[in-house]
Design goal:
444 residues; alpha+beta; 7-stranded antiparallel beta sheet; 16 helices; 38% helix; elongated
Length: 444
Amino acid sequence: MRSPHRIATHESSEETPPDRPYGETPPDRPYGETPPDRPYVDVPSGRPYVATNRRNPYEELGALAPHPLEDFLQDDTGGAAEAETPWQPPNHRRGSRSRRRRNRFAGLPLAAKVLVTLAVATAFLVLADRWALLYAEREAGDRLKDQLGLSAAPEVDIEGFPFLTQVLDQRLDEVKVTVPDVAADRVSLAKVSATATDVTVKGEGPTSLHGAVIGRMRGEVLLSFDDLNRELGASQVTFTGRGRDRVHARGTLPVAGHDLKVRADARIERSGDRGVATDIGRMRLGIGGMASYRPGPRASDGLHLSRAGARRVADESARAKALLSVPAIAKRLGVPDDTVRGALRSDARLNDVTGSPRFVDDVMRLDLIDAAMGHPALLKKLGLDPALLQGLSGLTRPVLVDRLTLAFELPELPGDGSVRLSDVRVEKDGIRAELEGSGLAFGR
């Protein structure tokens, strides 16, 4: 079965004209033109196909190339400059993101836009206020350090918010000041803290404040027990509170190469408006278990044998004879001269003297410092170091009190204002005193 295509028929299809090679188009006939002697025949209809002259479409495109395409590709301003710039692919993502952001913000309602703007403005105002506050606190600490002669700048906290409105009004609601290690006579106060109210500042802005006047001030002062050993030079003495106004001192104190056990009680009281006094009593230095020393002018003061030491003297004949061989001591003990002579010659008579119920009590009442002044070797015979005689004689009551005193006085403050201690009490960590003040001026 034949397909219905157009078939070119020739009058003589078996022979090729000798004057033309096979398949060659005559040169006088355009491309695509059907030879007149070989008409195409439409097979289904049987009618001959009339050929027409057609132009090649590629030739038409080639005719357009020189003019419009060159104008499109070339730049009137000079293509050489652009040719030097390396080509980069366009970044469509960045533009789309910025457009999306603008579109998102543009899509917000007006109220939301106002709220966002107010939030950003508020954040900047808060930051500016806090910066001005920190600057003012640091400047105030430096000025207090210079004016009060402190070793370190105190910590200043200005309360209230906002700070800038208070500066513009030239009045601060509340200011807290904490000063560590304030020198007060022979001791250092561990902490002085105060809260000032009704404060009038001097200056026109947060960076130009040059002074302040405190209307009212309340605070407290702490003298720490932990610092007393270092301050007083008694490194092995500990202080503990006993009640509201009592302090006990217990430890050791070096004297003439010996560590003597020290015991003392101090009563704490307010002295005037700015001072704290200590009345130290019941001071005693223990020399082993043999004797004790109490500084003072009373008869019970001085160097005395303890009860255990007095019994050892009574029980040991050598120590008892050494004591009775000093006429002044025998006279103070109330032993007659003939009895003393008999006791020194006979142990039986000595036992009669030392076995008396009053002998131990009489020996304990002897001041060995006075007795040993004329007989330095007596202390050694009694079992005591003679070097203690010189060390203890110089350790008078004022000297020992000065080494253990807890008294202090607040330093003078500048200006015409006043500061006073309102209450003094003993607590577990130290001596704490409350203070009040008014009309204090600082700066210029």
